[in-house]
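Before the break, one more example. Copy the sequence into your notebook; we will annotate it together after we see the structure.
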Amino acid sequence: MDRSHTTLVVGASLAGMHAARTLRNGGHTGRIVVLDADRHTPYDKPPLSKQVLAQGWGPERLTLPAVDEELDLDLRLSTRAVGLDLDERTVSVEALAGPERFEFDTLVLATGAAARRLPGTDDVDGVHVVRTLDDALGLRAELEARPGRVVVVGAGFIGAEVAASCRALGLEVTVVEALPVPLERVLGAEMGAVCGRLHVEHGVDLRLGTGVDHFDTVPGEGGRRRVVGVALTDGTVVPAEVVVVGIGVSVTTSWLEGSGLTLDDGVVCDETLLAAPGVVAAGDVARYPSARFGQSLRVEHWEHAVQGGEAAGRRLLADLRGDEPQRFDPVPWFWSDQYDRKLQLAGRPAPTDHVEVVHGSTEEFRFVALYGREGRLVGVLGMNRPRHVIQLRALLDDGASFDEACARAATL
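Here is what the structure looks like once it is written out:
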């Protein structure tokens, strides 16, 4: 391949680093420059809400494998992309040394997403999100001071994992969720209620169907304020020395506005992850058409970032070699560790899907449930049943019917 060819990877995320590795191992002999706004060596994020908080893991245990491999990458940290010019084939950045522009022949967009924050909390100490290593380390420092109560806003997967980590540390925890059932939008009401009961049985004060009205604060250091309580929309006030906000993410695409790329809650790509000639997207930021599920998808899961990064790298290699590009349409796959339970989810279930428990018992938090829609299997959910989930997950790849999946489950 042409040694003068430069590929720019914007985002040293899981997806970005896997794209870089795929390019280099696939024969890319030119320059590969990786830019990232974070100051830390590229790291894995799932442990942030679990092992970093509850087990004291340090940054050295989170480093992504690609960092230590002989990939000859030009890694630029503390370098934030602020603009893209497709005609000039340049990315403008803000770095510690000042503004700079990077030229590219091909481009990988892997900037991921940022945690949503509640308005009016920028100057309030004690209010945290968990998205970056600095977020997790800052929260851990406050948890080590043994706060009287931690309030978690949002009972999604991040909020649930943080709540479980705090309970593992022996802290009092209240979880506030605006929906009547935790995780209802992802798992549906029945399975969401099971997840909520798991936390209640581990001593969490679970407040459902209510949101945050405002934070009670007192004067803090340096002219800032300090949270002391969370006032809810139902009129109650929960004392809190630490608050963790887990209300979802927003994709990091504002720097691409006006670039000519199509943006719609992500970078809109074709079925091969191509967003423009010579430009691909991967990971949380990529939105692509899924023939498997008949809809446009943007997926925020760990394994999807790995698969997307590799697929994005292969897409660029296909152009460089003149090969036929491959369609990207994997089965989404996700897991979450909470207490001594491992929750695994494959597919793309919806709250309105038919759900049937085919193994174990939800009362014991050891079960497998299948999701069906219009006669098709669309999801497999398991709690502490990894072998069963992995075997049934393969049926999603095969496009099995719901009846076929139930029959197969009966033989396991």
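The first helix runs from residue 14 to 25. The mean pLDDT is 96. Try to locate both features in your own notes.
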